[in-house]
Amino acid sequence: LAATISLIAPAVSLAFLQDGAMLAVALDDRTIQLRNIARGALVRTYSAALGVPGAVAASPDGRRLAFSAGNHTIQIWDVEKNTFLAELPGHLDAIIALTFAPDGKRLASVSRDQTAILWDVDSGRMLRDLSKPANEPLALAFAPGGSVLAVSDAAGGIRYWELANLRDIAYVPTRDQPVSALAYSPDGKWFAVGGEQGLLNLWDVSGKRADRALPQAPDTVHVVAFSPDSKWLVVAGSDASLQLWEVETAQLAQRYEGGNHQTYALALTPDGQQIAAAGADNKLTLWK
Fold it and tell me: Considering only CA atoms, which of 205, 233, 208 is closest in space to residue 221?
């Protein structure tokens, strides 16, 4: 079953909060909407970055919302209490993506200024500038245990950071196209990588099985997300439909039709029972 909500502008980033009861929507008009999912109603609006689309992320406990704000800063709010908690300055240009670590204590961000930064959420302190010269970072993903952070870039590579000592442990070239989507499976067994020219790969993190290329991907993969049980991979991109892949068999199991043209944003509820997607056509689509 699909439900559609009309938006005032295209959405570029989504995040579920409060066990899926609320959805944060970053719009192309530089605002962040907070919506009640059961009613589809707009609860409140936050002012995001001036002149650029916003980015949003939710803490694992669903209580905190991080989003890009004015002057290339990041704001963190307590959604339940509607209270402002911290502002994180450090980037010099638009923030592209945000993600919380599994423990909720750290936050990673990437920006068009070619920097990637790791933050302490409670203190608002910058823990480490993770940048390396030349390549613009595009996407971020924490491993489930929180021990590793992966950062992909516009040159087609992925850099891995060991977070215990904030050490750069590897740089892996994939191919020459930008890598715009990353996700670890919640069970820690798989790593999904997506990007331009139909790039969609499943990598076995343990190294026990051969890495798999998924051949029917959209021309451009914008975002990937695993189901909470790690059995399914949801893929969104330049197609009008979402793809649902069975992870163990690497088979395309289902397409969700009637969604968005050019889907840029995707989120799953913590129980995996709802999918939210949004794209260039000013629509927010919810599947149950």
Answer: 233
